[in-house]
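I have been asked to look over a protein record a colleague put together. The record follows directly below this note.
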Amino acid sequence: MPRFHCPAPLHTGLALSLPAGAARHVQVLRLQPGDAITLFNGEGGEFDATVTRMGRSDVDVEVGVHHPVEREAARSVHLLAGITANDRMDWLVEKATELGVASITPLVAERSVLKLKGERADKKLAHWQGVAVAAAEQCGRNRVPAIHPAVSLKEWLVQPTADADRWVLSLAQGTQALGAVNTSTRPVVVLSGPEGGLSPAEEAAALAAGFQPVTLGSRVLRAETAPLALLSALTVL
């Protein structure tokens, strides 16, 4: 059954018009009045719904029964990810959402090829949030990971954060393997660099702030592959 994110208060019996993006998707799928769909608003669970009217650019639905189903990972993972070039960041956001990431902060690292500021940063943030919404619709998640505004590591380290384990993906000799540090179910913040990795100064700042270095093995993974490999190990049951 087609699933659509509808960021609005939902309850059984409610009649409403779908948001523009969801309405376009319904029209592309050529759904008709009477067809069944699923709606979720990110607040938990999902709703049956029925298409009641197809307009030229708008779609009306009636909300049905709520199902308190959740498909979230057992461990909450926040990804602090170095911004990668071109469409690799889109791919990272999409796959991280599918793998159960709780939230993502794009990191403007010293070696990031793509530098964001001002209006361009706002547009990229909205785009990545849309990628996360589409991935949540596809994979069955009823909660969409938040994509936070892009920051430098220095800026992130001075922000108040929830109590959590902190890991930084590192290639430094003597770094412990994931299995050796993954000993709890506490929330975890994972710091991963862009192409070329974190600079020595950035990694030193992370270690000074309580990040524990973690390795995924002897192979050098791409910037968009490494955090996904870790997410797979942590969240896929």
About this structure: The radius of gyration is 20 Å. The longest helix spans residues 118-139. The chain has seven helices and twelve strands.
